[in-house]
From TrEMBL:
It holds the Pfam family WD40. It comes from Brassica campestris. SMART domains: WD40 (SM00320). Keywords: Nucleus, Protein transport, Repeat, Transport, WD repeat. This is Uncharacterized protein. It is found in: Nucleus envelope. PROSITE patterns: WD_REPEATS_2 (PS50082), WD_REPEATS_REGION (PS50294). Its main location: nucleus. WD repeats lie at residues 99-131. Coiled coil: none annotated. It comes from the Eukaryota.
């Protein structure tokens, strides 16, 4: 709550059960109609229908937008989601970066507390650290290989 008012709730969901249903969307609860409404879709037109392997929402430390990472077989998309809806109630969405480097599926993604560093791992056994600079440009900061025991 802020100033006695309830903040909006957002939910991110993805479905990889069917090639026709693969998507990652952001939903907001509409109390007036007691239902969930899709307010954003995190996919470029050429990405629609791609299987989604992992999703991770970055902590927001004062940015005027949210940052969400979505992993598909094409790599990891870093999405900026605006907080002010348009006249249709949709949130503005912009793909900020495309990250590639893993060989195979990305299974897990975690953000640091600042929301500027993303750790990813997957079927290739590698852990990769991706970082954004203050200009919003992303690069691979480190790659960690598993050590055989």
């Amino acid at each position: 709550m802020r100033n006695g008012e309830q903040e909006p709730s957002f939910v991110l969901a993805f479905n990889s059960d069917s090639p026709h249903l693969n998507s990652s969307k952001i939903w907001e609860f509409d109390e007036a109609h007691n239902r969930w409404l899709a307010v954003a879709e995190l996919a470029s037109p050429e990405d629609k229908g791609d299987p989604v392997y992992a999703v991770s929402w970055a902590p927001n430390i004062g940015r005027p937008y949210e940052v969400v990472a979505v992993a598909t077989h094409k790599g990891i998309g870093i999405w900026q989601v605006g907080l002010a809806p348009d006249l249709d109630g949709r949130l503005p969405v912009k793909k900020a970066a495309s990250l590639s480097g893993h060989q195979g599926e990305v299974w897990e993604m975690e953000w640091d507390m600042s929301g500027m560093t993303l750790a990813t791992t997957g079927s290739d056994g590698m852990v990769r650290l991706w970082q954004s600079n203050l200009n919003g440009e992303w690069h691979e900061q480190a790659m960690l290989e598993p050590v055989p025991s």
